Amino acid sequence: MSITxxxxxxxGQSNPEILYYDFNGSGxxxxxxxxxxxxxxxxxxxxxxLFLGGIGQCNTGAIVGSGNSSSTDYVNTNWAPSIDxxxxxxxxxxxxxxxxxxxxxxxDVNATSWRCFTNGVAGPDNWLLRGPHADVLxxxxxxxAPHLNTWVYDDVxxxxxxxLDGALVTTVPQVGLNISGTGPLKVMGYxxxxxxxxxxxxxxxxxxxxxxxxxxxMDLMAQGGGSTEVVSACDSYYWPADSTxxxxxxxxxxxxxxxxGCDSTLYLDLTINTSVSGATETIAACDSFVWLQNGLTxxxxxxxxxxxxxxxGCDSTLYLDLTINSSVLGAIDTIVACDSFVWQQNGMMxxxxxxxxENLTTTSGCDSILTLDLTINLSTSSSITETALDVYSSPAGxxxxxxxxxxxxxxxxxxxxxxxTIDLTVQYTSLSELNQFNVHLYPNPTSTTxxxxxxxxxxxxxKMYITSISGECVLEVPKQSTNIEVESLVNGIxxxxxxxxxxxxxxxxxKN
Length: 512
Prior knowledge:
The chain has one helix and 46 strands. The model is unreliable at 6-13 and 430-435 (pLDDT under 50).
């Protein structure tokens, strides 16, 4: 098992740069323990009936609220706020009961009303940070039970993060924040509003000129100090600090009791790297592939392996499942089409024969140059004038029995459509050629009925019937009928047959 300890950083008792009051003394003067206090802010002063003497974080001192107006009771920091980049604000409070009164824990009415309070719009049990930025709430931070409340403005991330007892509870977007004013910033009060609740406690008021990391914020919970151990290990790691074996990366902590009454917190920032056996890289490439794991070039599909030492320091056996697809050159589509052709390879329409090319990416992802060898044959058209007796059979095999303009479509010599327009005249056989009696039909042609004229010349009519041009009887007609319904007949040439004592009289008509 490979173990790398990259760093060990101690965060314990990291003092703020701007303001830090631990409230462990006595009297009315409170030293500013910050590493770089602003000019004139080396010492804060208690004004009014506030006093030091409560039990704060880690059983150390605290300052006790009076519940009076901030005009008379407050801590004067003697500082005019001026912050235009990242910052961290943190304080510990306890013994804050819900109330209809707004209690202010700090603020400066002259710095764009930067302030923090509970109750009212903040709601009971909550601290609300308000000012020249979006409201940021710490729910559950202002209660009788003790809590550490921390706000971090990160100008790089563009947000304000709020932490309750070291745990992130609220994140609010915020960019370009500038807090400045004429001061003074008050602690345990704000302007003339009611300050900290009577008997309410504050301890460890801190203001940094940077955004603290999550591990540093957690370290504020244990004022005895703390440290972070950064470790990279293969598969698992045994931490002697709390006799635990870890197999998952993460940030772990353990508390070590301190002799001063405050515990120390140790942190383990652990990265677990897994020894890899059987990891497979599946690759499809065109023509060749260079595997970065070993720098070799492959031109044939197959399964390849490589044993490497990963950057994590763990052994890894890597597999390459390689498919080599070839680029396609010279593929030809030979097409013969009528009038035009749409090539599916590019969606273009061609009306002229020739050779055309198209560069495409095939389904395998490789380049393919396709060629179209195209022959375009043309459709033709013509017109003819025809005269026929009774019926006309067209070039396409259609039968016409009436005069008119008709269109036939047949294949020409190259297999394309040949459109023929027929100007047709149909003449009919004279009735006088078929009958010796002066009997005739009207109208002829007809579509619905025919009328028979001259029936009185025929003696002893015994039967009347209609036959098709092929001689089939298609309709029996009552004898002596002079008005005959033929609408049910299909279009064509028919004969009305009349049997009488003088013989058989046949009359031709056309149904259209």
